[in-house]
Amino acid sequence: MPRRVAPDSYSAAGGDAERQDLHQLSSAICNGEDLGPFVRKAFASGRPESLLQSLRHYARSKESEIEEVCKAHYQDFIRAVDDLRSLLSDVDSLKSALSDSNTALQSAAGPLLSFLDAYLEARAVARNLSAALAAARLCVRVLELLARANDHLASDDLYLALRSIDAVERDFLDAAPHPTLRRMLLRLIPAVRSHAERKIAKEFSDWMVQIRVASRHLGQVAIGRASAARQREEELRIRQRQAEEQSRLSLRDANSSSIYSLEEDDDSDDLTAAIAAARGGGGSGAAVDAILGFDLTPLYRAYHIHQTLGLQDRFKQYYFENRKLQLTSDFQVSSMTPFLESHQTFFAQIAGFFIVEDRILRTGGGLISRSDVDALWETAIAKMVSVLEDQFSRMQTANHLLLIKDYVSLLGVTLRRYGYTVDPLLDVLAKHRDKYHDLLLSDCRRQVSEALAADKFEQMLMKKEYEYSMNVLSFQIQTSDITPAFPYVAPFSSTVPDLCRIVRSFIEDSVSFMSHGGQLDFYPIVKKYLDRLLGEVVDGAILRLVEAGGLGVSQAMQVAANMPVMERACDFFFRHAAQLSGIPLRIAERGRREFPLKKSRDAAEELLLRLLEAKLDDFMILTDTVSWMADDPPPNGNEYANEVIIYLETLVSTAQQILPIPVLRRVLCGVLAQVSEKIVGLFLSDSVKRFNANAVTGIDADLRLFESFADNQSHLFGDTEDLGANELKMPLLEARQLVNLLMSNHPENFLNPVIREKSYNKLDYKKVATISEKFRDSSDRLFSTFGTRGSKQNPKKKSLDALIKRLKDVS
């Protein structure tokens, strides 16, 4: 019996796969899907037979379905065939009718078709001609634009040339009718733009060179206009001060309205003024050419061209960098030229630069921004501050520093009008204020020393009225408003007007430095430095002159006579400083202080008094001839007194022509006080061992001479003669009280406080005691308690003895 073989599991699996593929294939055919993937899969697996077998199997399965459908619809098919056969005859008749119609149509439409062909051919020709004409017109428009661009380039009208090129590129480049024309346009358009860029770059470079020269002259004109405006303001202030003074003095007259006048403001800008000045012939040839050639059109043209080229941002940066480099080169200060000579050009160049930048900022259409201008200004002001700091530190002349300060302040005024901040420049000027005044004081110290050294200290002679006006009226040191007759001998020497001119120049220079520097109320500062000038320089110089000891009596008298005049001049100095500082005079007068030259005035009077005292000492040598134990008193006083009186009368006659009354009064009082002191000193002198009543009577006669002299001079002093006489007699009071005490019958009354305060208040206890002990009677060796024995004691002698005893007890 044959062995049963088990079914192959692989074959079973293969059969299941074939059935699954057949099912998928059937589904795809039923759904109308693409059979390509099945075909590729079959060929990829190397079994196309299985696919064919599946297809045949599917076809057999469908054939059976078709048969079933045909069987189901057999009757319907038969009826359809019968209907078709019945229609066949109708179709044949219709066919013959259509053939006849076609034959008739062909015979009728033949000519029309020939005409249609001719029309279509003509239409094609017309279409080609229209295209050719359109291309020709396009070429004509392109060539017209190119010719126009060429003309604009020839006439240097770059903007219109670029507009033409842009129109060609925008409207015709893509629509070029021929490739050759397109290639030409692609080559020419960049070439024209490049040419325009090079051309405008050259014009901009030329403008940069021209604007540098024009800026310098523009800056000079602008600063000059600021200086003129400042001058007009100062003139207006002077008129206002005059009006204020007239108002204070109630001296307004019919012409007072002429003090105030309306100033027409010049509203034109600096550039317009510069061009007007240049056209009016107010400058050199180079300046005129530069100003008249000043034009921002090339710059704006360059900016506009770059905007047209789409390169405005690049041009803005290029412009800013070039202007910055130009500004940096303007900062260079030549070491070969003194800064005093080049500072105006230096600052005018910078001023013109920023005036131009302000104009460009306002009218340039965004070429430069405010931040860029501020950055340039910060750089510029930092450099100017550095240059000023360096140059000021080197300067040793006040006038040089003032000249530069004035120009810098004008620069500040000019640029402040354009909105630039100039405070750092003003801070530099304020920082060097002390140095400037120290230099100015040094110059004044030298000038004062030279003026004093050149003066012979003689009364100044003025032959003409202008000399009087120049030396007296201009400093308000006159004592009367009446003009004197000429020639006029002034009570002062040439030192006074010289010193006044020096001080006035100092005030004006100080005010000039302090004004326009950003500080409004600078009078206290000017006054401080004026006090230093008067107190340290002038007073110190006169004091050194007086203390040097080289002056005689007449010279010392003239120096003393100069001081009251200088006191009036000092009042003028402070008023002048207040007026120049722009403050009301009443405020300046409210803060008036004591005479600044008080030390030198006192020293001059002391010197004159010492010289006169020395002269008196020479006359007092004649006191050696005084007889202290004379038997009879001298009938007309002692000889020395007569000599002193003669000298004093001569002195007064001379001094009253030179010295002011108060000074003369102080000098005479000092001289008479010296006389009184000398007389008292005679009684105290060791050379006078004793004296008697006759000698006292002689000294009394001498005192009466001096008191008579004082009475004779009383008309020069005081409101009344009695007051003047009493004032001059006061210095003789000590000697008079001493003589009165010695001549008194009751000298012990000196011990009575009431009587002493009333009649002997100038006497000193010790002096009285010493002198009383020397008082001898002619009948006795010693006028004391030890008188003549056996006789009645003299009451006066007894009183004097009591006085001497009491004074010894007090001692």
Shape: rod-shaped
Instruction: Work out the strand percent.
Output: under 5%
How many β-strands, per DSSP?
2
Question: What does the radius of gyration come to?
Answer: 64 Å
Pfam family, one: Sec15_C
GO biological process, one term: intracellular protein transport
Protein name: Exocyst complex component
Domain Exocyst complex component EXOC6/Sec15 N-terminal: 55-223
Give a short overview.
With 811 residues, the protein is an all-alpha fold. Helices cover 74% and strands 0% of the residues. Belongs to the SEC15 family.
Write structural notes for this entry.
The chain has 811 residues and is mainly alpha-helical. The chain contains 29 helices and 2 strands. It has a two-stranded antiparallel ribbon. α11 packs antiparallel against α12. The N and C termini lie far apart (192 Å). The N terminus is likely disordered.
Task: Spell out the blueprint of helices and strands.
Blueprint: H1 9-31, H2 36-45, H3 48-72, H4 74-154, H5 158-171, H6 179-249, H7 270-279, H8 285-292, H9 297-308, H10 312-330, H11 339-363, H12 370-394, H13 398-416, H14 423-431, H15 433-454, E1 461-462, H16 465-471, E2 488-489, H17 495-514, H18 523-548, H19 553-581, H20 585-590, H21 598-620, H22 639-655, H23 661-684, H24 693-712, H25 721-729, H26 733-743, H27 753-759, H28 765-774, H29 795-810
Antiparallel strand pairs: 1-2
InterPro entries: EXOC6/Sec15, EXOC6/Sec15_C, EXOC6/Sec15_C_dom1, EXOC6_Sec15_N, EXOC6PINT-1/Sec15/Tip20_C_dom2
Protein name: Exocyst complex component
GO cellular component, one term: exocyst
